[in-house]
Amino acid sequence: MQEVTSIENEMYLIAKDFIAMRYPKGWGGVAVIHTDDGKFLTSVSIETANSSVDLCIEVGAMCEAHKYNSCVTHCLCVVRDDENSPFKILSPCGVCQERLRFWGTGVKVGVTTTDHTLKFVTLDILQPYHWTNAYPLEKLEQYTKG
């Protein structure tokens, strides 16, 4: 089994601390993104009356990475049901996986496990049958940074 790195542990601690601060009661969730220039970017989901316009928790941090022209190396999404519940890691949804692929298939993402351990895998491991495999790499490079 792959060992968790210090970056990944730090991301998890940042997420837990941020949830406790931002959501002292009830549900809470935060995403933490690490970039190749050493930044830890955080974001939360937008709370709206119309859930059809909500965005995933990771989107704000991804936009920050784009804003700073930084390359994403890791992404982690952590939630809890309420202040008395354990923390859970959510694998990125399919849409966020597509967004993260902008930085290449080597981006490491936190994934949900049955034993609730902290585990990261690269996007190419998470999606071994991704649709981009049907195209030559040079055709796709214009759409990616990584």
Automatic annotation (TrEMBL):
Domain of life: Bacteria
InterPro entries recorded: Cytidine_deaminase-like (IPR016193)
Annotated SUPFAM superfamilies: Cytidine deaminase-like
CDD domains to which the protein is assigned, alphabetical: cytidine_deaminase
Listed name of the protein: Cytidine deaminase
